[in-house]
Amino acid sequence: MAIxxxxxxxxxxxxxxSPALQGINLQVEEGEFVAVIGPNGAGKSTxxxxxxxxxxxxxxxxxxxxxxxxxxxxxxxxxSEWVLNVGLAFQNPFNQISGAKYTVFEELAFGLENIGIxxxxxKTRVQDAMKLTGISDLADRSPYSLSGGQQQRVALTSILVxxxxxxxxDEPTSQMDPIGTREVFGVIHxxxxxxxTVILAEHKVEWIAQFADRxxxxxxGQILLDGTPAKVLTSPLLQENxxxxxxxxxxxxxxxxxxxxxxxxxxxxxEQAVExxxxxxxxxxxxxxxxx
Amino acid sequence: MKIxxxxxxxxxxxxxxxxxxxxxxxxxxxxxxxxxxxxxGKTTLVKHLNGLLQPAxxxxxxxxxxxxxxxxxxxxSRVGYVFQNPDEQLFSKxxxxxxxxxxKNLGRSAEQVQALVKDALAxxxxxxxxxxxxxxxxxxxxxxxxxxxxxxxxxxxVIFDEPTTGQDAVNVARIANVIAELRNRGKTVITITHDxxxxxxxxxxxxxxxxxxxxLDGKANDVLGQEETLATTYVDPPQLTRLGKRLGFxxxxxxxxxxxxxxxxxx
Lengths: 292, 267
Prior knowledge:
The complex is a heterodimer. Chain A is of the alpha/beta class. Chain A is built from twelve helices and ten strands. At the A-B interface, helix 7, helix 11 and helix 12 of A face helix 6, helix 10 and helix 11 of B.
């Protein structure tokens, strides 16, 4: 059974004329890792906020259709009930850190304090979550003394201690340098491997191609494409509609026009590109063949 | 207008030694990208170019001006600086006023201001948003307002700090167009970026920094091909550079044209 079930969801922010989401139907199975792509303004963040209950509970506005997670309906719940279903990580971890705590350990316990978890259980949960995300060594540091990648991993851990059923991430690496990006994707991948349902809005298609089970392309508040990474990320519709695509895909497409790419599907990752270009030239087999 | 940096040192009040002896020459009209992990000193370095930071040791010359002897306000006539976060620099009630602020402050005449604003708005595709409040625009368009408000100052040197962070593909292409046009006009463009593919496709010269020093400095292809050295400052070569290497290309390639040419040669 789908853990996330959106039926015909349309949403308009207050004081706006056109809907940010329009007729969204989306079912996500338990344990699925779904990536959401789209140009800025396509509705990625709004979709994340909708799943996390911020729409409509915090932002108000008009929501029609139904938003269901684990059998509960968002419109019939309060935001404080909803946080136990869905955890949301923001683009900028700085926005997530409470500012009320001196150490990472206390920061991680903050959410648990608010829902009245007993002290001993809090400790255990925080320690376990830190181990999972590889930040145990940061426990006594100030949340503000950390690098961007560390801070985002703390923010993710502060969500995981709440043990949500679904993890929603809104471009968690957009403010990170490459090392921070790698650290954060490492954690997300680890969570998905452990069976957590993950919904990730993200521009970085090379990472998506490696980790996601499924990709949804949003355009102007509507679902344009929904399918496997291999299918969606190489669709010609993406480039036509202003989506970012992998250089491997766009270059192989150009190569194909001049007969320099074989019959394979277009590549999204480096490995797929290497394999594709190598097998396109049987006489140049294997890796590391020098140009003549 | 040449930029000359001689043995530049800088230490933050916290004791962090952010720059440890940087020497660098940038000729008028060059397009330079600066890459390297967070904390490498990239932003600290460029903040010395318009006097926001003053050297603890060494010297920074903008043309014939020593930055130690000129105010930030004065240096602003030679060096424009677009911050990473547009919200740190936008404050006017509409886009037109925001973009007019810089040239007005530099003492340009009303006609000149009008012409500079018109040009900057056209270049950043903001003409139809002249009357809009910057904070009613999306983050993507606010970034373009930040660019326009610096371009309108018509400085010889323009600095961009992480122009593509959080931008989608369409806006990254827009920003690349702006940089190409500035090159055509003979401007010096210095850009800090983590977006290594953007760097590869838009800059002729690349400087890689690490721990307050310059690790590599040279033609883009030469720098971007040095995978092992770049890895020490956590920079991956561009996608097509990595692919070319894996396919055994003899030359380092950094964009689609170069890649396809080498692929032709391999067949």
